[in-house]
Amino acid sequence: MQTIQLVGAILFGLALLHTFAAKSFEVLSHRHPRHAGMFHLLGEVEVVFGFWAFILMIAIAFLNGGQAAIAYAESRQYTEPLFVFVVMVVAASRPVLEAVQQVLLALAKRMPVATELALVWFGMALVPLTGSLITEPAAMTLAALMLAPLIFREGMPEKLKYAALGVLFVNISIGGLLTAYAAPPVLMVAGTWNWDSSYMAAHFGWKATVAVLINATAISVVLRKHLRATAANAPSAEAVHNAPAVPLAVTLIHLGFLAAVVVLGHHPVLFLGIFMLFLGFTTAYPRYQNPLILKEGLLVGFFLAGLVVLGGMQQWWLQPIVESLSPLALFFGAMSLTAITDNAALTYLGSLIDGISVQSQYMLVAGAVTGGGLTVIANAPNPAGVSLLRRGFQDQSIGTLGLLAGALLPTAVAALAFLLL
Questions:
Q1: 200: which residues sit within 8 A by CB, 6+ positions away?
Q2: How many domains does the chain have?
């Protein structure tokens, strides 16, 4: 073990502690207005890992020289942070969001339950499952924006918000398992282990669907008594936008941009080029747009890039743990380790193990996606959800322990589905 590896592990641990303490910094920003800016910066969950990644770069430069620090930073793979940033902004554009809302509203009105209850169920079940087609980050963005005025706002008990957030994060994490390209943990192993979409649907997808439906139904029943007043106070689409209706042609063009970004998700040069065209189109037709969520997307990308930089130093202690576990222990070990490291990084380490059994392959991926809702860093789309929903929580921040508590039951449902079905 090299000195810089130990330093990297220590800084990773400090970043985790900082994540748990982020809500405390937000509280301090309100109590000490003189230094509110600094406390608010330190309380931004999306800033945490990027901040500590810079500290790691400084440490590498100090210990091994500036060229070593630059070489390490440039050796990391940043496709995922870039993709999440781009797909967040495109998926949250007004034409895409309104198209999804109109389809779901039409379906909700045909359901034999209150419209707002049906919308919540769709947001918790149908939208996460569409993540298998449009990718999990896009599904998270759409679900968060759709559910925000229904659940994550004033008037809803804080405990129920965390319960709903836990269900949303878990369902997003497992909702992309119907295909081999939509969930980051699956992408890391699909090529190495020859898993295609038919394999994923047969071995993972239907089990994930069962768990998603159970979780969505349970949280909808819990929330049903609190939805009418919440939905009634939500502003109408006309009041929010105060803009002309979006023409069908503009909606189709936006959906085309989203589809192109998804298809080219492994080719950053190409999807960034598509994104530049998207920005140009939105600038040309501003009357059909809301402000793009560029700030939120950049913060999430910064968070994930920091996780990539810090996570690259953790292989020396993570991989021996993964290699030493039996299949069943690997499931629970992966589920637990996912809470403190991105699940895609964990499955990537598993793909490096020579001769790993088919059963262990299944248990590793199943455990990694099951634990994807336990913390903000457990699954790549989670920071996007936090960025879009935190304003609906007390102090405009999401507590790590609150999220963990809210995710425990839906995580248990997912675990039972993958282990028993």
A1: 177, 178, 179, 180, 186, 190
A2: 1
